[in-house]
Amino acid sequence: MGRAFVYVILGGGVAAGYAALEFVRRGVSHGELCIISEESVAPYERPALSKGYLLPEAPARLPAFHTCVGANDERLMPKWYKEHGIELVLGTRVKSADVRRKVLITATGETISYKILIIATGARALKLEEFGVRGSDAENVCYLRNLADTNRLVDVMQNCSGGNAVVIGGGYIGMECAAALVTNQMKVTMVFPEAHCMGRLFTPKIAEYYENYYKSKGVKFIKGSVLTSFENDSEGKVKAVILKDGTCLPADMVVVGIGIRPNTGLFEDQLQLEKGGIKVNGRMQASNTSVYAVGDVAAFPVKLFGNEIHRLEHVDSARKTARHAVAAIMAPTTGDLDYLPFFYSRMFTLSWQFYGDSIGEVVHYGDFSSGNFGAYWIYKGVIVGAFLEGGSKDDYEAIAKAVRSKAVVNNIAEVERAGIEFALRVSQQAATPESGLLVERPIYTHYATAGVVVALSIAGFAYWYGRRRRIL
């Protein structure tokens, strides 16, 4: 028994929803497109899980955050897919794939064939067991990657309201969940091996601001350490976290955010891989020309970085690579993706955005005491990265343009004094040598992948536990 489609999207996350909308807008016919997802719900905006979903009052719930509301576009309810003749195959795991024969086989034995496959399998959360820590299957140890994970976290949190929560990891998930736990009246301790939070992106000065803010909300930090084991009660629940130095932290619940690993298992012997993901060209096309890859699982050339291959773990990349892949499929004259790496987060009342790459010399600016500050990363005399907390819409657009235009810095001291005005001048006027701003397109020979910021704690855990090499 089997079904056949022209286009199949494997994976039902953010990228799948944005790809489906692009297919419809480009005239896909009824019955041609199928989406296969292990989850039992239609594609939704995953950022909501670590933000609005965890709020104690008026929390976000489906159907409010189905794609594509995250980009201020249509909200694709399940009936939308039916109305446009798109087959949603939900709650279904694909156990094998044959890209030469263009066939997928589900766990129930059904065969689904295609002409064009889009791999949007995303990534899975790394588990503590992978680093030698046993017992993380206890019911009050939580991860956060999908809707089921988040429902479990909410249930555990509500059952131990006012208790002690230990957050393992100082990256995106750790920081955002810690903020949510505090908002829900939990007493929070964060543990991570790095010297400061968000170690792959934040400078020590930027990290100090956020850590101090969290401390003002009651969060405790234990840095440069890792957990080695759990202490459990008679029912098997974790009641304490034991650290490497013997410190015992009481815990009514534990949230683990130590990074992710791309879901490439079905294709590792069939497609070319790089940076831990499926290598694709600028049209998101894999080594087998009938296959495309998008989102967290795709390693693609970034024009801004001299076409070096990067794998970027962020929702913005998932949305835009998905749309571009469909454009390339439906319109053969579509050129290569020209993507500006973008990352953001919202924690408590704070909100920051980052564009580009975090290499080179850092110039901080603004007023850290008031929460309006930023930084530029300067490499080989040009702006390659920009960070801003507490900016306006125009400010954020300006720093993005400064990075994309590769504004040349003739006077670092002037950039530091000008701060956000530097980016605003780039945005508002043509550059002149007198202003210290120039626009050019130099060749970049080396960039460290900015996408690793989501997997902020993996390297530290791999170092301490020595179990497995982190794949990025």
Topology of this structure?
Blueprint: E1 2-4, E2 7-10, H1 14-25, E3 33-36, H2 78-83, E4 87-89, E5 94-98, E6 103-106, E7 111-113, E8 116-119, E9 123-125, E10 141-142, H3 147-159, E11 164-168, H4 172-183, E12 187-192, H5 204-216, E13 220-223, E14 227-232, E15 238-243, E16 248-250, E17 253-256, E18 260-262, E19 273-274, E20 277-279, E21 291-293, E22 298-302, E23 308-310, H6 315-330, E24 342-347, E25 350-356, E26 361-367, E27 372-379, E28 382-389, H7 393-404, E29 407-409, H8 412-418, H9 420-428, E30 437-439, H10 458-465
Parallel strand pairs: 1-7, 2-3, 2-8, 3-4, 8-21, 10-17, 11-12, 11-17, 12-13, 20-22
Antiparallel strand pairs: 5-6, 6-7, 9-18, 14-15, 15-16, 19-20, 22-23, 24-25, 25-28, 26-27, 27-28, 29-30
Helix pairs in contact: 1-6, 7-9
Textual characterization of the structure:
With 472 residues, the chain is α/β, with parallel strands linked by helices. Helices cover 23% and strands 28% of the residues. It has helices spanning 14-25, 78-83, 147-159, 172-183, 204-216, 315-330, 393-404, 412-418, 420-428, 458-465, and strands at residues 2-4, 7-10, 33-36, 87-89, 94-98, 103-106, 111-113, 116-119, 123-125, 141-142, 164-168, 187-192, 220-223, 227-232, 238-243, 248-250, 253-256, 260-262, 273-274, 277-279, 291-293, 298-302, 308-310, 342-347, 350-356, 361-367, 372-379, 382-389, 407-409, 437-439. The chain has a five-stranded parallel sheet. The protein has a five-stranded parallel sheet with strand order 10-17-11-12-13, with helices on one face. Strands 24-25-28-27-26 form a five-stranded antiparallel sheet. Strand 24 (342-347) and strand 25 form a beta hairpin. Helix 1 (14-25) runs parallel beside helix 6 and helix 7 (393-404) packs across helix 9. Residues 430-472 have low confidence and may be disordered.
